[in-house]
Amino acid sequence: MKPIKLTMSAFGSFAGVETIDFSALGDNGLYLITGETGAGKTTIFDAISFALFGEASCGARSDNRMLHSDYAERHVKTAVALDFSVGGKTYGIRRVLAPRLKNDEIRYTASVEFVAPDHEPITRDSEVKQKILEIVGLNHDQFSQIVMIAQNDFLRFLQSDTGKRVDILRSIFGTNALQQFQAKLKQKFKEADDEHAAIKREFDKHGIKPAQRAEYFIELEGRIAQAGACVADADARLAENGKEEQRLAAELAVGGELARKFASLAQSKQSLEVYLSRADEIAALADRRVRSEIALRRVKPLADEYDRAAKRLDGARIDHASALELLTTSRAQAEEAARTLAAVPSADDAQARRDGLRVESQQTADHFRRLDGLYSKNLDMDRKRKQLGAIVVEIEGLEKTIRALPPLQDAQSALAIRQQSLKRDSELLQTLSALQNDYNTIVKKQATLNKAQAEYETISKQFNDADSRLRRAEEIFFSNQAGLLAQNLKDDAPCPVCGSTHHPSPARVPDSNVTEAMVKKQRGVTDQARDARDRQSADCKARLTEAETLKSRFLKDMSAYASDISWLNAGNVVGDLIFKTSRLVDEQARQIQSEEKALDDLKISWAGATRKLDELTPKRNTLKAEADMLGAQFVRDAADILEGEPGESAATILSGLRASAKGASDDSAKRLAESESLLKRIIRQRDAAQAGKSKADVALSAAAALFDERAKQLANASGQRDESRSAFEAALFEHGFVDADEYMAALVGEAQLEAITARIDNHNKSVDQLARDIRRLDSETAGLTCPDVDRLKTQMDAVAHETKTLRDMRDEAKISLDRSRMILDELRKAGKRLEHAEEALVEIKELSDTANGKLDFETYAQAAYFDRVLRAANLRLVMMSQHRYTMLRKEDAVDARKRAGLDIEVLDSFTGKCRSASSLSGGESFMASLALALGLSDVLQQNVGGIHLDAMFIDEGFGSLDSEVLDLAIRTLTDMTGGSRVIGVISHVAELRDRIDKQIRVSKTSGGSKVTMCA
Predict the structure, then answer these.
(1) 11-44: pLDDT as tens digits
(2) How far is CA 456 from its chain centroid?
(3) N or C: which end of the chain has fewer CB within 10 A?
(4) What distance in Å separates the CA atoms of residue 444 and residue 454, rounded to the nearest whole number?
(5) Phi/psi of residue 93, each to 5°?
(6) What is the tens place of the pLDDT at every residue in 795-810?
(7) What is the DSSP letter of 979?
(8) What phi-psi label fits residue 237: left (phi over 0), alpha (psi between -120 and 50 degrees) or beta?
(9) DSSP letters along 404-472, please?
(10) pTM, whole model, 2 decimals?
(11) Are 313 and 777 in contact (CB under 8 A)?
(12) d(CA 630, CA 377)
């Protein structure tokens, strides 16, 4: 890959548009990118990296907001365009960051366009990255490591120890899988060790050592046999106690029943004596019951009848007096009604006059009705003729209106065309609105992606911090172990690690003590951080894929409506289309609404006019026929009155005759009404007087009959009262009562009498029952003595207590037996698992110790890569050092506590000895680090498929060289530019401007940096 032309706008240090034409620097050779510190020299390489991969070369500018120039306005777009060549073909790529303000914060929306020969432009970011990978052959990380050589980074790499160099080479050569394999072996060993410890803890909780488990098993079996014998003995004694309890229970049941009978006999005799002491009281109560029963059953009915007869006599006397008063009043009312009837006049004269007036009134009324009918017909005839004229005029107007209306079909056709157009535009608006929703969704997902990526950076940093802490803890821990071993070293005795008998510099125990538990804990924290980083990375990739997929689909759908659509202008384009389409739809809707209203009005006009015409035409014909018929009838009916053809004066004549006939008819009707009113009044008076007399006569007859009946009832009530009194007095005498007061003293109520009877009966029943119980109990206890129940209960309680004690002893023995059996079973199973765990632990420990030793798998694999790097590096170092220095890989570590295998030592041909790379001078270190960087670049190119890079950038590091070494370095780099390769040296060293003719100069200004070319 060789850059041809680079254009930057509002990028990094460059506020305006800056263009660098690399082709003007020639096809090969060195060129210098020079300028003050901070002017933006490295920004040029960042721009190339951003154009190709969408990322700057350094992590500090991973956020798009960091790429926007601080010198440019916030609303200005950041853009980078790069033309480059690969294999003789030229390609172009352009990336743009469009700012968007949201909640007072600037967000950048990225877009890309890649142009290749004989290929359609590609605008989807994921497809562009894949295409760049196919063409260039490098991903972003590889490109940053191979094409850009940062001297300061490789100086640190040169002087690092094996541990730090392993971390660096891991990211370069991708040996993560070996590291993970080692970690898995460690984890497997930890799991096996944890399982082995867990099984040992099962023995520890019982206080025994796993090696002594056989003796403990024998002891447990003895305990089990002893506990079983104890349980069997307790079961036998419990069976005997059960039989004794059954015997005592039976004896206690019989004795208790007999004791209850003796107690019941004594209680019954005592109760009988109490009842017998109440005999006189019960006898007096029985006498009282007899007297009360006679008074209630035999005397009281006669007394009650006497009271009722006396009450009936009092009522008969009151009714007789009332009947006498009613008879007197009815007789006076009958006499008054007869006098009123005699005073009413006769109705015959009034009726004769009424009949004569009725005939006269009928004649005048008939005459008036005839004249009124003729007058009405004449008026009706005139009204219909006027209506007919008005309808004729209205029909003529409707016909004129219908002829003036436009055709209905033309308006309907125009409206249908307009509606079809509105439907198409409405469907387009719905589609665009859906696309706008898709755009908003993509923007939200992009924001979520940005947030997830930011979280990834944070989580990744947390992992790196945790990993560094783990490495440091492991280093201290292993150093600690080495120090502890070194404390026991003795002269002439072999070292347990290296086997040497000479110990010139034994390791010391470090001041900080890190335990294995602390290392394990930190390893767990690091593993959790790694898992969190991997999960976040997978989430970011999934979100990126989803966002890119949605963008591609959106742009493909939008391309049908906008030919120049891209993601940068998508929001504005779809918004403009929606705005324009919405306005068009609204305008068409308003026009359709107006045309629909006009069409409805036209339909209403057509329908109204034709309907009215259809209604008026038959009405006109009907009115004409009716008017003609009324004229003929009027002429026929009024011929004898008008004496000729009716004219305009007919209405006047008929009106005069009608008024005269109306007066005569009204006068006759009035006189007839007065006559009928008088006749009705006379008839009503006579009817009322006759009804009053009839009513008074009926009332008088009823009052006389009532008086006779009440007199008889009074006589009967008096006789009944006398008979019932005689019967009551006879009953008193017969049943021994001196008078009514003595009877009332003996009289009680039915409930009280029942209570006295019940009391006497209950007393007698209780005496009889007690006598029977005494006889029965005397018979059942004859010849027996009362048993000692308390003694039996005491014996029963003693046996029960002994049974409970035996049962508790038996339960304790059974629990001990079951627990011993369970422990024996668990420990036998644990013993078998312990044997398997120990075998597995030995196997995995050997593997883990081998893989994670001083020269672990990953370091061993990296050593092979590193040897290739050193061979390639020495080709340059030998030349630049004038055959003095050669870098070698030192396999043995000076400090046994540290990892070994990737340490560098330098062979000095002047002395023939090797020394540490850190002992080189500043210029020598630059030469070694530059050679190391170039060697690493060569090996990396071979690893990624033999890619040959036509361009490289070397950043800084030349300031520490003297003139002679600087010449050697430039000569070495110049030799590397043979063929078509160009190498850009990024440096602020002034001496290089005199040694390298081709230059790209970057200068600072108050408004941003500027670029000038010197070819």
Answers:
(1) 988 988 999 998 888 888 888 898 888 888 888 8
(2) 29
(3) C
(4) 15
(5) -140, 140
(6) 888 888 888 888 888 8
(7) T
(8) alpha
(9) HSPPHHHHHHHHHHHHHHHHHHHHHHHHHHHHHHHHHHHHHHHHHHHHHHHHHHHHHHHHHHHHHHHHH
(10) 0.38
(11) no
(12) 7
